[in-house]
Design brief:
Layout: E1 4-7, H1 14-28, E2 33-38, H2 47-59, E3 63-69, H3 73-82, E4 88-94, H4 106-112, E5 116-120, H5 127-131, H6 134-144, H7 149-160, E6 164-166, H8 173-180, H9 189-196
Parallel strand pairs: 1-2, 2-3, 3-4, 4-5, 5-6
Length: 201
């Protein structure tokens, strides 16, 4: 099991980061957190102070990897520059077939620097499920067998990027099983072009 959690932006002072981590460890009942992410940047706290605390956590075995969430590219670069011993392992951002803004900067930077991109809202808050055209789904089905919209749009992320990992919400076991059906196959370049030509809303 790989455990990831976040520290809230109101807890980004050096001592506050450490205290928040220890509270999370106690609540989770574990000895360390695999990926500890800064939920949002806080302009009132120097990123150097926060990253010094994150490196302390790695040094002392309380976390394994340092991550960011909802940072702009410039903020990612600044955060990486503030680390003296470790690298930023991941950046978590909204990304879907409907919201592709980070393709212009975050994704290429992350790929170049060996950083994972964790894509949240990969189903576009459910809008992709509701608005996806049936004829496009039929094209995919002819080549890959019956697939749900969720499986197709999640596979689009997997097929398009080697360093981007979608994290869809799953409110019940059926959703978990459906989401797993997005793995184990790949869309072709032509199918990706078809999906990206769709205009939503």
């Amino acid at each position: 099991m790989f455990i990831a959690t976040k520290v809230w932006p109101t807890h980004l002072r050096y001592e506050a980061v450490i205290k928040a981590t220890k509270r999370s460890l106690a609540r989770l009942g574990v000895k360390y957190i695999d990926l500890y992410q800064i939920h949002f940047p806080n302009r009132r706290v120097p990123i150097t102070e926060t990253m010094r605390a994150m490196e302390y956590l790695v040094d002392n075995g309380l976390i394994r990897f340092i991550g960011l969430s909802n940072f702009s590219l410039n903020q990612v670069i600044e955060a990486q520059g503030a680390l003296k011993k470790y690298e930023v392992a991941s950046i978590q951002m909204p990304y879907s077939l409907m919201d592709r803004r980070i393709e212009a900067d975050i994704i290429p930077y992350a790929k170049k620097n060996g950083m994972a991109v964790i894509a949240y809202y990969p189903l576009g808050h459910g809008r992709l499920i509701r608005e996806f055209p049936r004829d496009a789904l039929e094209v995919i089905a002819r080549n890959h067998g019956p697939k749900t919209v969720a499986q197709v749009v999640l596979n689009w992320i997997i097929s398009k990027h080697e360093n981007v990992f979608p994290i869809p919400r799953a409110s019940n076991p059926d959703h978990v099983r459906e989401n797993l059906g997005a793995a184990g196959w790949r869309l072709s370049e032509e199918e990706i072009r078809i999906l990206e030509s769709i205009r939503f809303g």
